[in-house]
Amino acid sequence: MNFKRAIIALLSVLLLLSGCTNKQDSNSEIKLDPNNPVSLTIWHYYNGAQQAAFDELLQEFNATTGKQKGIYIEGYSQGSVSDLEKALSDSVAEKVGAKAMPDIFSTYADTAYAIQKQGKLANLKSYFTDEELALYVDGYIEEGYFFDDNALYLFPVAKSTEVMMLNTTDWEPFAKECNVSYDDLATIEGVVEVSKKYYEWSNGKAFYGRDSMSNYFVIGMKQMGVDIFDVKDGNVTIRAEKDKIRRLWDNYYVPFVSGYFTALGKFRSDDVKTGDILCYTGSTSSSMYFPDEVVLDDGNKKIEYVVLPAPIMKAGERYAVQQGAGMAVTKSDVKREYAATEFLKWFTAKENNLRFVCESSYLPVRKDANSIDSLDLVIKNQNLNVNEKVYDCLVSVLSQSDSVKYYTTKSFNNGYQTRKVLDFNLSDKAVADKKAIESLISSGVSRDEALRKYIGDESFESWYKSFCDKLETTAHK
Predict the structure, then answer these.
(1) Of 155, 157, 152, which is closest to residue 25 (Cα–Cα)?
(2) How far apart are alpha carbons 325 and 158 in whole angstroms?
(3) Helix H segments across 117-166?
(4) Closest among 350, 319, 327, 50 to 162, alpha carbons compared
(5) Residues 261-284: pLDDT tens digits?
(6) What does the pLDDT look like over 325-363, one tens digit per residue?
(7) What single string gives the DSSP state of each residue in 50-119?
(8) CA–CA separation, 240 vs 285, rounded Å?
(9) CB neighbours (10 Å) of residue 388?
(10) Is the Cβ–Cβ distance between 463 and 429 less than 8 Å?
């Protein structure tokens, strides 16, 4: 009899605990006081039009949903992404003079991963139902799961991918004379061929550049069927297969030192503005900075543009980069964490999120917002004045979303530093070797002879070994 009573009592406790868990998951027991609102801080890296759009939405939240629920949020731009990461790093380390951790902050996955290794982030899964999370693009949500603990540490608010932007004003006479078309720019190899033709047609001018070399490596390898960073249970294996890395070398380093590609300004849109290139691959969020005119020594010239899909490796799968910072919530107490996630839900609601992306050239994060019809409807309903380049960029990406697979690497220890190897190792070598080649040519060495020393098998083998060694030592230090 006592045994039966014990079983009944145990079942009652389990049912009670189960009920409490369900209540907490639905946040039904968390109540805030509108007369004594929870005040939160949010750090981000938005500037210019992006910051203006974010600030406007933040003010609207505070005046409406935030006021009703008892939440007030103050936003602070930390400047650039690197400035924000430095501020976060100092705050986490509790350095002298560093500000306290914000309640919410923009961050890339690698940075959030490193912060959570110290147990500093809230598990957002506690504040979202499965039905709510299902509203978001699956890949965007998956990026926020770092470990095998089913905990969500990073939430998507706006994403980006890459596009190709082209100065069509200067493209058209070249294309007509050399019989080339946009179709020739669909593959990386095609871009190299077109760039070589343009170099010869223009008496030695470069045609193309790209902003992110780490994306070139990561996505190029993925298009060829390999994860260069193969991460399992937080452990990374570097898969820099030689034949595939050689293809990447042949289609960036060789055309760069040959003069077909270049990189002079901070961003490739700067190089378009100075007339040093016609075309580049860069983030969708950079589209608004594509110049309206080329600045030349003898005056400025107005130019037109077209947005094209980012080129892929020939015969490769149609993978495109998935990038952009999400937002993390600092681990604190239930009320502050709950208040933070209420803002994230509001900010990423379909209409609000589309309003933000219209000003920032990012991509919406909810499934029901990822269509041209949804974009056009919010522009009409909100009477938004959208930058033409931003709109064309969004339309270009949204129109091909069904045929493209978006990809990002999983987080691992030293992931940020290892990506920096991809960003600078080959590109810095290309810049230095191009100068050396130009010096040889100036001294009387023929162009073919000067190039031969740098683009042959021996040169590749030497670089490849040092490249792999650098990746391995950085990833596993």
Answers:
(1) 152
(2) 7
(3) 130-133, 138-142
(4) 319
(5) 999 999 999 999 999 999 999 999
(6) 999 999 999 999 999 999 999 999 999 999 998 887 789
(7) HHHHHHHHHHHHHHTHHHHHTEEEEEEE-SSHHHHHHHHHHHHTT-TTPPPPPSEEEE-HHHHHHHHTTT
(8) 29
(9) 11
(10) yes
pTM, two decimals, is 0.88
Q: Which of 288, 290, 285 is nearest to 269 (CA)?
A: 290
Count CA atoms closer than 13 A to 44's CA, side-chain side.
22
Side-chain half-sphere CA neighbours of 469 within 13 A: 6
Q: Please give the C-alpha separations between residue 275 and each of 192, 297, 307, 318, 352, in angstroms, as whole numbers.
A: 19, 10, 18, 30, 38
Q: Which long-range contacts (CB under 8 A, 24 or more apart) does 196-204 make?
A: 196/255, 196/258, 196/260, 198/174, 198/260, 198/278, 199/258, 199/259, 199/260, 201/174, 201/177, 202/174, 204/259
Give the dihedral sign, CA 245/251/256/257: positive
**Chain position carrying tokens 């294996």:** 237
Query: How far lies 378's CA from each of 54, 375, 416, in Å?
Result: 16, 6, 36
Distance CA 457, CA 461 (A): 6
Rounded CA-CA distance 155/106 in Å is: 9
Task: Give the whole-angstrom CA distance, residue 155 versus residue 170.
Answer: 42
Please report where in the chains the tokens 């269509």 appear, as a residue. 371
